[in-house]
Design goal:
By secondary structure, the protein is of the alpha/beta class. The protein contains eleven helices and ten strands. It is globular and about 50 Å long.
Length: 366
Amino acid sequence: MKLKSLVFNAMLSMGFRIERYKNNWQLDTGSNSFQPDPNIGMDIKNFFSNIDPFYENIKDLPKELQIGAWKIQLENRRKNQVTVYKRGNSADIAELHENMFYNELITGLWAYFYFDKITKSGIADFSDDFKDYDRIYPDHPYLLTDNPIKCWGHRNSSVENNKLIKNSDIAHAIEALMVTNCTNLISNDSCTVLEIGSGMGGLAERLYHSKKISKLILFDIPLNLVTAYYYLKRGLGEKSNILMASTREEAIKGLTSKEVEICLLPTCFFPCLSNEMEIDIVSNFYSFSEMYEDTVNYYLNNLPESVRIICQANSNTAVLKNDNHTTEVSCDKFDYPKGFVEVFSSIQMPLKSCKSRYKSKILYKN
């Protein structure tokens, strides 16, 4: 109890607070604590009318893009999520996503703890990582956001007593620093960033505000992609042109249109990329470690020729994951495209979140 109090007091003294979460998305129907957007819920409903959550309706999908390593776990862990989509009620879909930090959309995806099993050591690790970040980046670049989703704390730094950070924020802030620093190596006035593994959209949300980045292309499996879409539409919808493609035609439109600022694509449309498309930077944080080796190499060796920089952080230790059915591929052993040389590497922060086994790497094309 003493340790817990010390950690909470330390965080409070920095102007931040920690919230507890329950693994239950079904809130009291009389609650006014959040305002889901049914229009975004309808977009997600329409998306799944064309794309099965596990690509069961996609023909001739390359084996490397099939949802393999994590399918069984996803089916078990995301049962409620899939059930909501199948019911097809846009209001329910919006409620699920609006309250996603309390439910299975986010629960268990981060390394400190599961939100229904918060541990003292997990809170201590989170506090240690924040203190490291605070010492190295005292101005807290990219840490806070103003996404209006209530359960995310409406993290607007200008609002007193409203500086809520989540355990994903430190990682997203550091990732954003890595990618935006890479844009300084691109001679163009503006550049396009391809993110393989959108996650919940936290990195894209931050990169959108970079003056040097004119377009973001996000790929992920459907269950993650729609989470990122809801999060980004709620936070940036009125200010940005965001497209989520559920057909090949929409995918090509999103990739080639100069008006689309953020293009979200399910990984089944990765073959829509072509050498005629101008993409400057490719980023991947942690998700290559969750794939089979042939899938990682498929992505890396089917990038457009215009790509100049690969910015990533992945495990460099071969540990067993997925109930001991999958061995992580060490990032030093990835089959990087010819012409790319490693120009930077380091242990990835935040250290405790990454269990000190993730390695950040930047590769530059000669």
